[in-house]
Specification:
13% strand; alpha/beta; two-stranded antiparallel sheet; binds zinc ion; TIM Barrel; binds fe (iii) ion; 7-stranded parallel sheet; globular
């Protein structure tokens, strides 16, 4: 059986090829990165040589798909028109730039409806996606499962399903399941991963599940908090991650660590989880 595909969030500050090299150094074969500065403004144009070098590294080291992350400040369903406008422009621009790195994922937080209500929120998110997605694109856009902090949309599988229902080019859409977020949203991912996956399948369809954010949580199930913890040191515990890296329905997906760590810490978590996955295969 193939090795798991796992990595962490990396900084773009030294360019794309540097992220690939750093990933290899810490034993990763995928990674996440922010597509632009979260403070807004224009994104740097991609340097074609830098991107080509990353693609070479990814091929040589047999990387799985990358899971790019839109900036947290991008809110397609804000109550402020300027914020919505920025989100729409940023997403469309990100998807055009992602074409330089075809075949990867672009994950984003559906948004916060800021007292407009979840129905209006979902409507705005769908409008934004329908503007940004284009026929023939080579990126799959992932909705992230959210903890349900404040007025976050995407706190339940039902809300994600309603967004997917409203997107015209939905063959370019999928879901990224964040283990900390679904726990905080009230799904017992630690106690009953199979039950949560069955529920996901019933409401959304497991064919939509494309990637995982692998995080422990500082808070109990249903707390709606969204505070990540190191693997095995939170309320989910190591057994939860043993299940994630060995379950046939999740072990083949790209897994991104967003735990509070430096690179050395990520390297340790990657080798820990690879070790567990390998021990079960044998
Ligand atoms: Fe996220
Ligand atoms: Fe996440
Ligand atoms: Zn989070």
């Amino acid at each position: 059986m193939a090795d798991i595909c796992i990595g962490c969030h990396l900084s773009t500050s030294d360019g794309y090829a540097a992220m690939g090299r750093r990933a290899v150094e810490i034993g990763a074969n995928t990674f996440a990165f922010f597509t632009r500065n979260p403070r807004g403004g224009n994104a740097k144009p991609l340097d074609p040589d830098d991107v080509a070098e990353l693609r070479r590294i990814m091929g040589e080291k047999d990387f799985g798909p990358l899971v790019a992350h839109a900036p947290y400040t991008m809110n397609l369903c804000s109550s402020t028109e300027r914020t919505v406008e920025f989100a729409r422009t940023a997403m469309a621009d990100d998807l055009r730039r992602m074409e330089e790195l075809p075949g990867n994922y672009y994950n984003f937080h559906p948004g916060s409806h800021v007292k407009q209500g979840v129905d209006r929120g979902i409507e705005l998110i769908c409008e934004g996606l329908n503007q940004a997605l284009f026929e023939g694109q080579h990126t799959t856009v992932l909705l992230e499962t959210m903890a349900g902090k404040g007025t976050e949309v995407g706190r339940s599988f039902e809300e994600l399903a309603r967004i997917l229902d409203g997107v015209r080019l939905d063959s370019y859409m999928g879901v990224c399941l964040d283990t900390c977020h679904v726990n905080d949203a009230g799904y017992d991912v630690a106690g009953d991963l199979d039950g949560v996956l069955d529920e996901f399948d019933r409401v959304i369809g497991l064919d939509r599940l494309k990637a995982l954010h692998v995080n422990d949580s500082k808070n109990p199930c249903g707390s709606h908090k969204d505070r990540h913890e190191k693997i095995g040191e939170g309320t989910l515990g190591l057994d939860a991650f043993r299940a994630v890296v060995t379950n046939p329905r999740t072990r083949t997906l790209p897994m991104i660590l967003e735990t509070p760590n430096d690179l050395a810490g990520y390297k340790k978590e990657i080798s820990l989880l690879r070790g567990i996955a390998a021990s079960v295969e044998a």
